[in-house]
TrEMBL record:
Full-sequence portion shown in this chain: 302 to 782 of 883
Endpoints of the signal sequence: none
Boundaries of every Tr-type G domain copy: 79-248
Top-rank taxon: Bacteria
Name of this protein: Translation initiation factor IF-2
Sequence positions that bind GTP: 88-95, 134-138, 188-191
Gene: infB
Family designation: Belongs to the TRAFAC class translation factor GTPase superfamily. Classic translation factor GTPase family. IF-2 subfamily.
Chief place where the protein resides: cytoplasm
Residue ranges, annotated region (G-domain): 82-230
Location(s) in or outside the cell: Cytoplasm
Amino acid sequence: EDIRVYEFAEACGKSPAEVIKVLFSLGMMVTKNDFLKQDELEILGEEFGIEVTVKDALEDVNYVESYEGEEVDTGSFITRPPVVTIMGHVDHGKTSLLDKIRSSKVASGEAGGITQHINSYTVVKNGQKITFVDTPGHEAFSAMRTRGANVTDIIIIVVAADDGVKAQTEEVISHAKASGCPIIVAMNKMDKESANPDMVKAQMAERNLTPIDWGGDIEFIGVSARTGEGVEDLLENILIQAELLDLKADPTAKAKATVIEASLEKGRGPVANVIVQNGTLRVGDNIVCDTTFGRVKAITNDMGEIVKELGLSETGTVLGLNDVPTTGSSLISMDTEKEVRDIANTRAEHARAKELSKSTKVSLEEMSGLIAEGKMKQLPVIIKADVGGSLEAIKGSLEKIANDEVKVKVVHAAVGGITESDIVLASASSGCIILGFNVRPTGAVKAKAKADGVEINTYSIIYDLLDDVKNALSGMMSAVI
Ligand code: GDP
């Protein structure tokens, strides 16, 4: 709140020009002394890949994952239930285990109603709640994480004790480790005669998940989704881990939830299956989720019952959004309908502008066509070179290349490798290409360039670079670079 363009640029290590470019490209006219609005800050955060904490309307809903104790008012913070994700190789019993845990914890009268597998639920063990979430797979799990949806506190890796570590177990291990969540290994199918827990332990230890009884720090629990053996033990271990994590959140805050699944249902409209991460979600709340918004019309809990609210770490389905939100997006409650509509609309606009700017990106080759047709008056370029001498030489030569109607416009020239911020800058200047001399983009930068539709050309001979640009300008270039 109340931050000027140049202050923001300073705070995130960008030049004011870069900040202004991003906003200009979205049709937002600002100068360096202007104050940034909340939506502009959000957009800039997204563009620059940095986390912008907007203290204002969103202040109350910032999810406090682990409370440190200094700055925040502790008054309303309470311990929240852990959220657990189960992952494992196909057929190792992930679904069976989730169903067993659920049915073993549900009062018998209600259990009869549970025939179908559902993808999230809360159980009570020793008077404490635990929420389980079934993500469609470990890729989906990581995809949600890259979108900032860190719903999971603890990961259980299921390994069939008669089968051991398999290809997908390996993948799951990588995803689990990358998440930084504590891991518990559930060795399933212990009821089978061929079960060999020591084999599982050895294979996991080889992958740096060493059992506690072997001197490591990972809990291995033998279970059977068929007989229920070990399930209580597993739940107890989850509670121990949760206690170590000291998970806190504020039930009095405005709700922040994460969408774990969403669909359009006949007669009900958009339905979002959510898990509450902070605050309390209530019927009647004004909510925004991704580019969708609305008012909570109805909530159904994990038992399929109609309820008035969902508390911390609880899951259920929400009716009332005007469209189907993306999986992994945050659902947030706000005071007024205007707020949620404005935010959703701004996001939608931003998404459209991004799409548009992508589709107007052209390659050097296409550019020459446009220039030939007289549609392009200038060719914007970003030059990156290994040394200052080459950079000056290239810049100087490029600025001299011009014919009657067209010229090169150097948007940015600097010594150094091609970075993500160059891509951001290029995407913000329509048709801009990046020319690298003796520098190459890293894989991550290449991927971003591809995603944003930015062309990068690299050279090690100055003449080649100049020739390409000359050809483009004269509209004669036909060869693909
Ligand atoms: P998922 O692909 O990991 O979800 O695995 P499923 O839960 O679908 O289980 C795969 C198969 O293993 C099914 O035929 C289950 O009945 C069986 N299964 C799962 N858990 C156990 C167990 O603890 N013991 C035995 N004997 N079979 C199990």
